Amino acid sequence: MTKSPSPLVGTTAERVAALTSENPYLTSQPKPRLLIVGAGMMGREHLRVSQLLGWADVQGIVDPDGGSLEWACSDWRLLTKAPLTIYRDLSEACLDDAVDAIVIATPNHTHRDVLHAVAASHKPVLLEKPMATTLADAMDIVHLARDYPAVIQLGMQYRFKAQYVEALQAVAAPNALGQVKTVAMSEYRPPFLDKVNQWNKFNRNSGGTLVEKCCHYFDLINVVAQSRPRRVYASGDQAVNFLDFEWQGEQSDIDDHAMVIIDYDNGVRASFTLNMFCRELYEELVVVGEHGRLVASEQASFQPDTPSTAQLLVEVPEHPAYRGVPVGYPDWIEASGHYGATFFEHIAFNLQLAGQEVDAATPEQALWSLIVASAAQHSMRIGREVDVSAFCEENGIAAFFDASINS
Ligand SMILES: NC(=O)c1ccc[n+]([C@@H]2O[C@H](COP(=O)([O-])OP(=O)(O)OC[C@H]3O[C@@H](n4cnc5c(N)ncnc54)[C@H](O)[C@@H]3O)[C@@H](O)[C@H]2O)c1
To answer: How far is residue 290's CA from residue 357's CA, in Å, rounded to a whole number?
Structure first.
């Protein structure tokens, strides 16, 4: 029997071709109704994307900030005439029978407590990245998820960016790169944007720059390396951005550039470079295996009406992308946020709501990305390499690290 096409399987073109205007998975059931917790920049993206996809309805939003509520409501009115409930209380919102699933898009340092409040509902959750700001909180979330009666999907949606969908397929393909030996990832971009109460200008709220932003990249590197990180060395600092920035009498302390080296158990060597005082955005993943090199790159901009361009190059004889090919989703998908990655993240979440198993980040995988990110932050502080096993032990998560040896 041939399997029907899925928007989460195959090349980006095959995934787009598998989309239908109707939700193909829940046609006989009413649409799930979402609650968005945290109606800031990312909460509004979740509102926009869920409307665009149309597989779920949005029941309501909850946020303590009047400005965020106002902005989200005005965005909502541009999207649809459907009602949107503004909840004043998080627990009341989660326990409302009219809510079927919950998206948490609050600042990083609130994730653990908000998740605990939400979990009383036993409803499915999509939790934004990074899962937490400390390894102890992240471990607590992994424990909670293990006993939880519904899915908890993590917001590592860069896996669904077009160039990484294509790259991960090319890496996994037989007779292509062969066994992976090195991975080099980089991001060049402008400084962090304004946030509500400027939470992202302080390490205590964000977990540090390598945790806040770069957990996406460490997740991708982990997926490509297919092994456990053994040693991490990082060097970085705050060189240009927010040097004179103060909020409520506190000086910003976030790093704006870093270089990280990761050694994996299976011999894969990886690096990550971050620079946040550039004008435009440029991301690159270079994977080299026994038989050749792959480069996945993206050039983008925070300037309005500037489309992104992404490319895949696979230098393996006879490969159709040997000289490089453009990759991407149609504009109507890319324009919805994060160049279409959030759109496919919602597809994954909806399929999980419909009881399907999909390839989306689990709490355990999110914890691995946080382990690398936190070890890198620690290495920058102490100026030496960090042994990941000892680091996990110092942070009270040795059992998680040891259990992964045979898993
Ligand atoms: N997946 C991605 O690529 C991506 C991109 C950007 C942001 N994020 C993540 O999304 C989350 C939100 O980031 P943002 O950029 O939207 O920040 P933001 O400051 O724009 O919005 C956060 C909102 O959460 C609200 N909030 C704070 N505490 C709350 C609580 N206890 N209950 C309900 N609402 C609360 C704030 O009032 C604010 O409106 C962060 O974890 C961030 O790292 C993910």
So the answer is: 32
